Amino acid sequence: QVQLVESGGGLVQAGDSLRLFCAAFGRTFRPYVMGWFRQTPGKEREFVAAISGSNGRTYERASVKGRFIISRDNAKSTVYLQMNSLKPEDTAVYYCAAANPVYDSVDRLPSGDSQYAYWGQGTQVTVSS
Hints:
Distance between the termini: 40 Å
Shape: globular
Structural class: mainly beta
């Protein structure tokens, strides 16, 4: 079992930056692929970014590529999402998730929420125009 706790959300203005944190507790952190997802009311949860546990390779959705950076510190069992040049359309509840270690070896890191086994409670990010 892996417990995930997000923090770092808040209210910012368009163009600002924000850094989200996700602390993992329980099983050894390193083997797990970690991902960030987001959801707005009335819409399905969507993939934002993922990072490998073994070699740090990343995969981001097109709309955030170049603005958002996912990283991790295995020694601290923490994954980060650095969000730059924020836009009002980035407003959402952001969720941290952990995928089965088997996905660490596939060609493309998982982007479907059904591929992730553990989820945090979410942190709200609001970007005003």
